[in-house]
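Field notebook, page 433. I keep forgetting to write these up properly, so this time I am using the form the group agreed on. The chain and the ligand, glutamic acid, are recorded exactly as supplied. Prediction of the bound pose follows.
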Amino acid sequence: MVRARFAPSPTGYLHVGSARTALFNWLFARHEGGQFLLRIEDTDAVRSKPEFLEEILDSLRWLGLNWDGEIVFQSKRLDVYRAAAEKLLSEGIAYRDGNAILFKVIPGEVVNIEDIIHGTIQVNTLEIKDQVLIKSDGTPTYNFACVVDDAEFKITHVIRGDDHISNTPKQLLLYRALKLSPPVFAHIPLILGTDRSRLSKRDGATNLNDYRKMGYLPEAMVNFFSLLGWSPGGDREILQVEEIVKAFDLARVGKTGAIFDLTKLSWMNSQYLKAAPLETLLPLIQEALKGRGWWKGSFDPRWVEEVIGLYKERIETVEDFCRQTQGLFTDQVPYDPEAINLRLKQPEVANRLNAFADRLEKLNGWDADTVESACRGLAEELKAKAADLIHPARVAVTGRSVGPSLFHILAVAGKEKTLQRLRHAATSLCSAS
Ligand code: GLU
């Protein structure tokens, strides 16, 4: 049976690159009907922190990358590594240097790595120095603990970033010394920024959790990560996780860097938001509004749903939703100075906004259709175009020059807010600055 594993070190938050490595292992295991194990490489007692561990586990759960069986903690297995090193000592394959135990590398030998993605990679042992197995503080090195554990837990496939390629020949030597058979290796290309250099903050957040906080949906993240270095063939990009599992194949993973394109991720997320049912969006949006102190218990749930319905086609993230709807949920209108210059500074605008407010004030009903006919009727009387009222009114009420249909915005903004903001804009924002 296929057994893959993800082996994070809890010395930092889950990096997007690690999340993608976890995903590829999970996809491979699920595709093969095998198991996906989780091992925590926490032998560095100083740098490993419980809060990082919690965050990593939380992020994996959020992405839906469920693991099989118990989590293995390397920190609880120090005696296992020590026993393995002592065995090599007794066989004369390892030697002591102070309190440390080192593995003797015989120079001039060729190690062949058979990699699913890169083919055969040959490394001469002249390039490899003797390997520390157990450090003088008693803890094992990464390469040693990794080999002991991958063998003991019967890992069949090691899928990890290609920054680990240089470790693999060392690990292969250790498998041989321990008389264990090595797993199959697949080194996946690193994620690069849009300028093909190492992924950095410039390309977007590098902590997975930040995407969660910004209101990206886990389904969109999984879809996006799956296409970083892999492709199902054809040009379809929106794929449900079941489809990805079905199609996933390590042989289709490319050798070269996968580009992390935030614009593409945001586009993908907007597609998922558009398709998401209200039950999914409502709690996320409610949490985001609460986080900003914008949530009022007095909001009518149907009204909130209406606002979501009005905006969900045009948002990239939940954070983006909040930015666009601040003026509806709060009394603070986020006036965009450019929008004001563009739409409110023409000579006729103040009069038109006042006339519009007066006309709307007389309405009995308050819905998009009623507001629309009042607007069109007034525009005709003023010998103006409806757009001459619509654009300034959108800025006056939402602070923004772009957004959904004005009539629907006014319908959800309500009469009182609408009149007050149209008049406020006419008196305070329209005057030449
Ligand atoms: N703890 C290592 C890392 O996070 C694991 C590497 C491996 O998968 O072997 O890079």
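OBSERVATIONS:
- The mean pLDDT is 96.
- DSSP finds 18 helices and twelve strands in the chain.
FOLLOW-UP: compare against the apo run.
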